[in-house]
Design goal:
With 462 residues, this protein is α/β, with parallel strands linked by helices. It contains 16 helices and 14 strands. The strands form 5 sheets. A 5-stranded mixed beta sheet has the order 2-8-7-6-5, with helices on both faces. Helix 14 crosses helix 16. Bound molecules: ligand F0G.
Amino acid sequence: MKLPYAEPYRMKMVEAIHTSTRNEREKWIAEANYNLFNLPSSRVYIDLLTDSGTGAMSDRQWAAMMTGDESYAGALSFYRLKEQVEKIFGFEYFLPTHQGRAAENVLFSALVKPGDIIPGNSHFDTTKGHIEYRRATAVDCTVKEANDTRLELPFKGNVDCNALEEVLRSHPRDKIPFVCLTITNNTSGGQPVSMANMREVSALSKKYGVPLLIDSARFAENAYFIKTREREYSDKTIKEIVAEMYSHADMMTMSAKKDGVVNIGGFVALRDRELFRKVSVFSIMFEGFITYGGMSGRDMDALAVGLDENTEFEQLHARISQVGYLGKKLDEYGIPYQRPSGGHAIFVDAKQVLTSVPKEQFIAQTLGIELYLEGGIRAVEIGAILADRDPATRENRYPQLELLRLAVPRRSYTDNHMNYIAAALKNIYDRRNAITTGYRITYEAPIMRHFTVELAPVTPKI
Ligand code: F0G
């Protein structure tokens, strides 16, 4: 008999979480104005809001924290992290930041100006936010197959290179500060980008003289998919694959809260000295001195170890297999989701579940609220609320996909939790035809509204 996968670690410490009653949850979600971000975590049983900063650190990471050097300038922790970044990604220049969006802020302050165009694959919302805030435009060139959740393809995060070339060809060089490649492609379902696609994107960027930036939040999961799905890489180690991936890039922004398996942290890494000098000014202005950039010494040490550990096959195999296990449970119940299951999350296809809720009433958000009411599970909407309004027309943007993301934190939950989540979704799926109305917005911020939006049921729930 083939032995099943099992985690390459055991538990040394646990944290209590609590169930609640449906009555309690009805009251709590109303108090939160039907925005799951507004719930105190004590009111959530299983938290799938994000896999960002929510993973469990290893004993080696906790031990490394004790060696943190908190010097304002030149901390040894900085040099240890810098060395690890150079070893893993091959970039000589490195600036720590407090998280991924801070890396975007620091780098884009030096590179993006009004009227610029930044092509890429489903730019993440903070990335797009930092582009649009600077009155530039993000152009999505993701392959169109990503919009069909039923298609079972290995690399649905890829860039459509014809679309990319069209953008590169039709704009002057000085209007395109960089191409932004997101790995894995979070917004389209944690879907990976193949090495072949990276090579092609890199070649096109070079042809048009445009630098290539990799938004790297889930780079290690992407490398895992390259190893397991792209035949010529099956014998390579994750670290070898990562090194090749980054040989194609000129710079990277990193949210270390995902594949760095730390609770906070990020960085910018570069090859160009002049650009490094320019970016350093913004690091000092927004983040802190260039050798800590908003991170404490102990956090930099935890990250140096996290990057090393999480670029090992065993870790990634257990983590991605757990996400796959949740996907298989949903298959058993016939619940539709973005196929194949993604690296960090399952993205339930809310449009195919709640077929009677109009898009103007926020289909994926409605499903998210139902899931909370059913089982105290907190997921996140990747739909019309997140897509926000068009910056020019201020009209709501209704994306083709309405997804409910179930992001699985690293090393935090067991497969029993996955069974519980799947059962809660099945109960909703069984009564899906009775759910015909959704929610309307009562308050929204002018940018990135999903974090603070307030909603009310379209017809009061009985
Ligand atoms: N890029 C990608 C692809 C991301 O997924 C995120 C964050 C960021 C950049 C920004 O990093 O949060 O450290 O500032 N994604 C989180 C998520 C929030 O839930 O997917 P950050």
